[in-house]
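Same chain as my last thread, 205 residues:
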Amino acid sequence: MKILAVSDTPSDKYYKYYRPGMLKEFDLILSCGDLGPEYLEFLVTMAGCPLVYVHGNHDDNYDRSPQGCICADDRIVTIGGLRILGFGGSNYYRDGNRDGIYIYKEKEMQSRIRRRWFSLRRHGGFDILLTHAPARGLNDFEDLPHRGFECFNTLLEKYKPSYFVHGHIHRNYDFSIPQVDHKGNTTVINAYEYCIIDTKTGLSR
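reply #2:
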């Protein structure tokens, strides 16, 4: 299966400079958040394959859900035999009253994960962890807005999925941040703008 992973900023290659047929090579599109509904709708329409997404921390201004797309927030979605577990949002970083929908404290994210225990057991785990935020200590930053969740590490260590696909960490913040990394046997993808994943060959670019 060939997968296009996208996050945070629309890709000029697949949007501004799109040419007919460019997206037809993909069997699945994964969106890690902070992308407008109109962009996701363009991708799913032109590709003609399923698009699975989670929300980013800036997606609380969505006035509607992107048509033709599948939200994986707090659930397991199975596409082409791949079990995709999704958790959108980033670390809680605003003082005072909560004024953002998709920002969570560590304990809140832990609680979201605990509520999926029955689904995880029923599905026998998952193949892809799809999130907006990264895992703590895995190419995240020390500042709270860009700090990853420790509970994602626990998920990866317990279930050992093939892929962990996230966004939120813009690679133009620090060009030394790898787009493709590994944690044990899990391939970690920073989907900022876009990344291509080939599950047959195991290559990502």
